[in-house]
Amino acid sequence: MFFSKPLSLCTIFIENLSIALQTIGGNKLSRTQKLWFSICLTGILVTNSVCWKKFERSGFGRFTSNALSKMFRKNKISWDMILMASIVNIFKQYEVTNGTLALDGTDNKRSKNTQKIAKVSSIKDKASGGFIKGQELTILVLITDKITIPVGFEFHESDPVLKDWKKSEKDLKKKGVAKKDRPIKPEQNKDYPDALDIALKLLKVFKQNHPEIKIKSILADALYGANRFVSQASKIFKKTQIITQAKTNQKIKSFGKYISIKDYFIKNPGVPKKLKIRGGEEQTVTMHGARLVLKAHGVKRYIIALKYEGESEYRYLLASELTWRLTDIAAAYTLRWLVEVFIQDWKGYEGWCQLAKQPGIDGSCRGVILSLLLDHCLLLHPSQTASIKNKLPASTVGSLRDRERANAILETIESLVADTNSSIVNELKDCISKVIPLRKSSKHMSGRELGRLEPTDSLVKYQKAA
Question: What is the pTM of this model?
Answer without folding.
Answer: 0.85
